[in-house]
């Protein structure tokens, strides 16, 4: 073994343990959301002591206090007195800045960030199954994360979509808002809990919407929400029972963050081509990815996060059947998507000018 440089050793150990700090703090964020602590802080009009926070949440003060110390030390929540300056527990008060409130406590804010943290126990539980996946090559689909996995996806994607899909994304597509207003057939493939279908179904009552997903938990959530919405122009289906049309009859097809999760994405693109009308439009939304690992690692500050999510969720889903493509979270770059779409029989491919931290948006046409 080469000689160890003590300074580099310290620096590397520091780097490694910052990752563990992130994991442990993420677990505390999950609890803050799950137990309603952030929501209680968001509704308070003044900073709260831990005793007041315990009262507001009906939780135990000692546990709240230790949690709050983690959160304030990690700068996830704000504090008036730093713990080192004030050892007396009642001197410490905690509050959320407006930005912390938006990300931690406002379910409908486009920057709301609790979705991924919601599903953290299920995501981490996959560690029990993954060693076997590394040996056999076979991963696990979204339903391996149970009902809460589906809720996590829903909470992750819907806030941004609710705020932007109708007003900022659809107008970027040639003629789609007009076609939907007049009346069109629409399919959302990999629809999850159906948020986009219900949103568009409400906005465009003359159009007919169908959402497809293979997750029974996501479809159950979608069915519940459909019932509550009382919409009559939307339905949901599992494509294994009710396959997509093959007669070029669907005017508009959407796929939000799901093609890279699919075991057979090329086949899915072919099915989309068979379903869509010859003058139809496919809106492909997928992760903003570069063409190589090096490009992703140097240009995307979230690369490590996304490659990890890939092993635990996206690539795992895409490898959940023998022969799965295994594209992975960062596996569908614009070039790859264009090449695959062209092989599936599409000829026009246009990147849309939509600002999003993680996703890229494409208009694809026959
Ligand atoms: C990351 S989630 C995105 C869900 C939804 N589009 C959204 O934005 O909330 C990916 C979804 O793709 C679904 N999926 C994976 N393979 C599929 C397939 N072959 N057909 C339909 N849905 C599929 C999964 O079950 C999961 O619900």
From TrEMBL:
CDD domains per the UniProt record, alphabetical: AdoMet_MTases
Domain S-adenosylmethionine-dependent methyltransferase Rv2258c-like winged HTH: 25-79
Pfam families in UniProt: Methyltransf_31, WHD_Rv2258c
InterPro entries: Methyltranfer_dom, SAM-binding_MTase, SAM-dependent_MTases_sf, WHD_Rv2258c
Domain Methyltransferase stretches: 181-300
Matching PANTHER family: METHYLTRANSFERASE DOMAIN-CONTAINING PROTEIN, METHYLTRANSFERASE TYPE 11
Protein name: Unannotated protein
Protein species of origin: freshwater metagenome
């Amino acid at each position: 073994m080469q000689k160890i440089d003590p300074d580099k050793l310290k620096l590397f150990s520091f780097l490694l343990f910052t990752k563990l700090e992130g994991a442990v703090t993420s677990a505390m964020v999950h609890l803050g959301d799950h137990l309603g602590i952030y929501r209680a802080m968001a509704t308070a009009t003044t900073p709260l002591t831990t005793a007041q926070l315990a009262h507001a949440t009906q939780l135990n003060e000692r546990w709240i206090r230790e949690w709050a110390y983690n959160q304030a030390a990690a700068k996830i929540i704000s504090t008036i007195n730093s713990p080192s300056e004030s050892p007396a527990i009642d001197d410490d008060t905690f509050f959320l800045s407006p930005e912390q409130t938006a990300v931690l406590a406002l379910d409908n804010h486009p920057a709301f960030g609790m979705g991924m943290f919601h599903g953290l126990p299920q995501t981490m539980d996959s560690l029990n199954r993954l060693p076997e996946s590394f040996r056999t090559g076979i991963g696990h689909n979204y339903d391996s994360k149970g009902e809460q996995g589906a809720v996590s996806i829903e909470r992750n994607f819907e806030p941004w979509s609710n705020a932007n899909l109708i007003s900022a994304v659809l107008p970027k597509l040639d003629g789609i808002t007009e076609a939907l207003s007049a009346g069109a057939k629409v399919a959302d493939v990999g629809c999850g809990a159906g948020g986009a279908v219900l949103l568009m179904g409400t906005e465009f009552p003359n159009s007919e919407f169908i959402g497809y997903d293979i997750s029974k938990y996501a479809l159950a959530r979608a069915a519940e929400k459909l019932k509550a919405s009382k919409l009559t122009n939307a339905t949901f289906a599992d494509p294994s029972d009710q396959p997509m049309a093959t007669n070029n009859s669907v005017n508009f097809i959407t796929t939000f963050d799901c093609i890279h999760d699919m075991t057979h994405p090329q086949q899915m693109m072919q099915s989309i081509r068979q379903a869509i009308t010859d003058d139809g439009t496919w809106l492909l939304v997928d992760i903003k990815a570069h063409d190589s690992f090096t490009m992703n690692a140097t240009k995307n500050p979230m690369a490590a996060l996304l490659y990890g999510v890939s092993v635990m969720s996206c690539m795992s889903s895409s490898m959940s059947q023998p022969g799965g493509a295994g594209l992975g979270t960062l596996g569908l770059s614009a070039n790859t998507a264009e090449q695959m779409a062209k092989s599936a029989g599409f000829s026009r491919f246009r990147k849309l000018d939509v600002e999003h931290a993680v996703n890229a948006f494409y208009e694809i046409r026959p």
